[in-house]
Amino acid sequence: MNLKPGVGKTTSAVWLAHALHESGLSPLLVDGDPASSALRWSELAGGFPFPVIALPVGDVHRRVNDFLGNRQAVVLDAPQLEDHPRITRSIMRYAGEWIVPVTPAPIELDRMAPILGEMADVQSLRAEPARSAVLLNRTNRPDATRTGPDADAREALTERGFEVLDTHIARLDLYAQSFGNPVQAKGSAYMDFAEELIKRQEEA
Q1: Cβ(56)–Cβ(79) below 8 Å
Q2: Per-residue pLDDT of the chain (204 residues; tens, 9 = 90+)
Q3: Integer Cα distance of 43 and 109 in angstroms
Q4: Which of 169, 164, 6, 139 is nearest to 82 (CA)?
Q5: Within 13 Å of residue 18, how many CA atoms lie on the same side as its CB?
Q6: What is the CA radius of gyration of the chain?
């Protein structure tokens, strides 16, 4: 989830779902965006090895379990909050973990403050609080951002109250040009992303 489009939400959701599948879990991918980008991606790629459903509706949290079956994980691709608040908030009411993809650029970091308010509002509607974390996306170099050029972005987000995942996604054509193509997550940063989320779930 994020306030705006173009930050890599769909790319992250699709690659994460593939990484979970390749990890031995059986995910369900829920496309909550009215643009249906994840669903279209699966069609162009000849289908994904797990189900993809479109639910661009304001009561996603009430409907997802109807499609869950024996699936062990659900990945929900939320639309931009600023244009589709009802859908995104409904997704946030369902999801146990909110992931916010963020590009480590000053203009993107500046737009993060309102997200905390949105999170607080939705948390008040939940029976149990959701976990939340930032995924640094399109980082400037493939090695660790803790000491690299994006370390300042990690520090700034932490100071503003965000938890930042250890995993980050480098700016690579492998991800940027992957729409519509089959995905193999093995060996990619998204496999690390999936493993970190699984660990967070186990610790919770």
Answers
A1: yes
A2: 998 888 899 999 999 999 999 999 999 999 999 999 999 999 999 999 999 999 999 999 999 999 999 999 999 999 999 999 999 999 999 999 999 999 988 888 888 888 999 999 999 999 999 999 999 999 975 554 455 557 888 899 999 999 999 999 999 999 999 999 999 999 999 999 999 999 999 998
A3: 34
A4: 6
A5: 24
A6: 16
Do 38 and 9 meet the contact criterion of CB atoms below 8 Å apart?
no
Q: How far apart are CA 10 and CA 42, in angstroms?
A: 12
Longest distance between any two alpha carbons in the chain, whole Å: 45
Residue linked to tokens 């790319």: 11
Q: Amino acid letter at 1?
A: M
Task: Identify any residues that bridge with 5 across adjacent strands, giving them in sequence order.
Answer: none
Terminal-to-terminal C-alpha distance of the chain: 21
What is this structure's pTM? 0.93
Amino acid in the structure at residue 98 = W
Residue with tokens 């659900």: 74
